[in-house]
Amino acid sequence: MIDINESVMRFLLAVVVAGPLLGAAAALLPAPPGLRGRSPEQAVLRHGVTVTGAVLAAAVVLVLGFDHDRPSDMQAVTDVTWIPALDVRLHLGVDGISLPLLLLTALLTFLCALYSYFHMPSGPSPRAFVALLLVLECGTLASFAVLDLILFFLAFETVLVPMYFLIARWGGADRAAAAWKFVLYTLLGSVVMLLGLLLIGLRAGTFDMVALATDNGRSLTTSVQVTAVLAVGIGLAVKTPMWPLHSWLPDAHTAAPTVGSVLLAGVLLKMGTYGFVRILLPVAPEGFRTFAPYLAAFAVVGIIYGSLACLALARRGARGDLKRLIAYSSVGHMGFVLLGIASMTPTGVNGALFANIAHGLITGLLFFVVGALKDRTGTTDLDTLADRTGAALYGRAPRLGGMFAFAAVASLGLPGLAGFWGEMLALFGAFDPAAGLSRPAFLTFMAVAATGTLLTAAYLLIVVRRVCMGAVDRDAPGLPDVRRYEFAAWTPLVVLTVVAGLWPRALLGLTDPAVQQLLAGGNR
After folding, report:
1. Which residues in 60-134 belong to E strands, given as ranges?
2. What pLDDT score was predicted for residue 496?
3. Which single residue of 10, 40, 245, 251 could bond 178 by disulfide (Cβ 3.0 to 4.6 Å)?
4. pLDDT tens across 356-399, in order?
5. Which residues contact 371 (CB under 8 A, 6 or more apart)?
6. Residues 107, 492 contacting (CB under 8 angstroms)
7. DSSP secondary structure string, 353-405?
8. Closest by Cα among 361, 173, 184 to 262
9. Which has the higher per-residue pLDDT, 217 or 358?
10. Closest residue by Cα to residue 357 from 280, 235, 265, 449
11. Domain-by-domain residue ranges, the chain?
């Protein structure tokens, strides 16, 4: 770690949050003649790589300058008045909970920009594509960095517009319907969430998330807490997504371009679970305790439902789409995150935060690889891939097949890889939930969720066998193996998946002190 002045840290956080928005505005301007390269389209794509790379570099320096001896404290804090009449402030800061999510967002967006530079999805102007990608990054980064309820809502909603257009204009079949479904679901949830946030802020007398966490619900009556948790929780559950509010996700993933699917699964889904941890757990603990068993029940139903849906899609003759299958697997994986949060214990919440990061790395890699497979074969239909064009991937494109198999076994929670620790800690949290929660009920939830891990292994191994194994047909057309730009975009995700699996302390050392303090209501 390096010693960086607090004012420099504030500047770095401001660059991380506002840099993409400034880059989006610049992307819409004509490129200077000397920077156009072979074409204006190439120049704007290079601009996207440059801006996201600069934001990633600033995020890395922010991590290096972060005081790891006090990860529970808010650092790089900016707090200035924005709307005095409503006491809304431009309040930014990072702690051990938000810092890993900031870095994950900056990394995935940079890798998506790099991938798009070499393989731009077919659609309208690259200028609009880059601008939307940067606005999406800005909204996501702001969601993890702001410390005001109104600012959180604004950032939470900012991502809807760029993701809608990325799906509707650069997506595949049925993209318009999928984009509308995505927007309508999330907007309806957000309206209810806004009412809950206003109720918290007006009753507590402040929208400051740090002050509300320190108060730990003491200024809110139990009835207000219950109402607020219900309202805010619905909006967060839609974005997570929690069963049965998940039905927008498979359509959105199936229709989205590759980079849209990567960012949707790797980053946007984390905004909902982050809101549960950052807002509801510390601000309305009694209200959350009331709904925790129901949240856990919905979570384990989502785990089983997602696994069974994937098994149905993976069987021969089902005409299952690989992108849709991965989307349903995300419903199951995010169920483990919600189960850990519902336990209201440091172990469970740490597991949820770890699983968030692991899911972003692994599922992002899965969507990258499946997107590359579609580019080579023209389809993501599992029956078509297994029976005609993509069977025997190990023999025809061994590096691509190996990358697909690695992502699949990481997703099923193989020990030694990132996916293992989050699910295990979430199950441990359910084994011994917080005081006031029914242990027999949570033991039942734990047992059901553990069954889900077996089902997850079953469908992923079936998919690997069908796509990667088999005899090579001599008459089969050639299949290019992993290209250089793909290797550059995917390698960081592979390395981080292994590092997080072998050295979980690197992440848990950041999150645990912050979680302990957040649950105790002592966040400063």
Report:
1. 75-83, 88-94
2. 95
3. 251
4. 999 999 999 999 999 888 888 878 888 887 765 445 778 778 89
5. 257, 258, 261, 262
6. yes
7. HHHHHHHHHHHHHHHHHHHHHHHHHS--BHHHIIIIISS-HHHHSHHHHHHHH
8. 361
9. 358
10. 265
11. 290-524
Non-local (6+) Cβ contacts of 509 within 8 A are 68, 71, 96
Q: Give the count of beta carbons closer than 10 Å to the beta carbon of residue 163.
A: 26
* pLDDT tens readout for residues 31-48: 655 455 566 677 888 889
E strand map for 303-370: none
Output b/e per residue, 2-15; b: 16+ Cβ within 10 A. eebeeeebbbbbbb
Q: Which two tokens stand for residue 370?
A: 């499946």
Tell me, letter by letter, the H, E, C secondary structure of 408-470: HHHHCCCCCCHHHHHHHHHHHHHHCCCCCCCHHHHHHHHHHHHHHHHHHHHHHHHHHHHHHCC
Paired strand residues for 75: 94
Longest dimension (CA), the chain: 73
H helix runs in 146-174, sequence order: 149-158, 160-170
pTM more than 0.90: yes
What type of residue is 389? Answer: T
**Number of other CB atoms surrounding residue 342 within 10 Å:** 33
Could you say which DSSP state residue 71 is in? T
